[in-house]
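task queued by scheduler; priority normal; single chain, no ligands, no partner chains; default sampling; output format set to structure tokens
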Amino acid sequence: MSNLTKTSEVETADAARGRGLKVHHLKPAPGAHKAKMRVGRGEGSKGKTAGRGTKGSKARKQVPARFEGGQMPLHMRVPKLKGFRNRFRKEYQVVNVATLAELFPAGGEIGVDDLVGAGAVRRNTLVKVLGDGEIGVALNVSAHAFSSSAREKIIAVGGSVVVL
């Protein structure tokens, strides 16, 4: 046996065991890898109009993708939002001291739950007491906020205010 046949037999045996094939030996199958088509580079294949046909906006390069052919553009058709909305604003349900005097003529302790039960405010909301009207009975009012005039009127008739 010659030396050349021994080497090829060893290589074949190594390849069978998985040792002969390396990553740098790999290449694509014949005809599987095609070169990129270079369009618009002269009068050969895909030259001149480069597959865009002739004339029209789609044959041009400068027309932006958002262009709608002279129709009123989308960004001009949609309504614009005006003003500013504070994300951190606190919305209060308001109750006047005159309403408290009407709903609770006997006086006593009044909380947010009592106001909800009487139908003065909605449940699960913040409540603020305002000073509109007159009060003649002593009330111990618990709410989330009070105006200064409401605080003065409630304390003047012998009541108290508690901020929750």
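post-processing summary
- The mean pLDDT is 86.
- The CA atoms of residues 138 and 159 lie 4 Å apart.
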